[in-house]
C-alpha cells in the first residue's frame, strides 16, 4: 500500500488528466483507512496540496465505526486518530460516526454522550483502564486538550435515516461552499439548536 501511494504521488499528471476541470464537479476520494499513511508519510498531504493548486476546494471526512466507539478508552483512541489526520492534512475536516443503524437501542443511548463529550467527566466515569496510575497524567492531558479547544466533534451517520444523511451532507457542502454562487448554504445545526437535533434523533430511534 505504501508503494502504491508513493507511486501515485509521483504520477499526479495522470490524476490531473483524469479529473479534468469541469465547473461544479463534486469529486469523492475514498482514501485508505490505514492511519500510517497520514502520520508517517507525506503522500496524503501532497495530494491535498496538489488538488488545492488545481483550485479544488478540499474537505476531509474522517469516518469512525460507531460500534468501535462505545467505550471511553476506545473513543479517546478514535479522537487521537481523527486529530492526527487533521494535523497532518491541515484542511477543514468533518468527523463522522458511521453505522449508527447497526447499534442496539442501549448502545445508541450510550453513544449519545460521545457526540458532544465532556472529557473531564468521562475520566471520572470511565473504567479502570483510563484510571491507570501509569497513564493518568497523559490521559488527563489528552482529554483536557480535546475538551478545552473543542478540536474533535462527531456527527452521527445512519444510512437508514434520511435526515441524518442530509445533516452530514450539509456540513460538507458548507465547508467547501459547494454551489455558493447559486445559494449560500449553512448546516442545519446553525439554524437550530444542535443539542435539540441530537436529542430528537436519539429519541426517535429509542421509540422505534
TrEMBL record:
Record keywords: GTP-binding, Hydrolase, Nucleotide-binding
Protein name: GPN-loop GTPase 3
UniProt function note: Small GTPase required for proper nuclear import of RNA polymerase II and III (RNAPII and RNAPIII). May act at an RNAP assembly step prior to nuclear import.
Pfam families cross-referenced by the UniProt entry: ATP_bind_1
GO molecular function, one term: GTP binding
Record family assignment: Belongs to the GPN-loop GTPase family.
Subunit architecture: Binds to RNA polymerase II (RNAPII).
InterPro entries: Gpn (IPR004130), P-loop_NTPase (IPR027417)
Protein species of origin: Mesitornis unicolor (brown roatelo)
Claim: Hydrolase is one of the keywords in the record: yes
The keyword Cell membrane belongs to this UniProt entry's keyword annotation: no
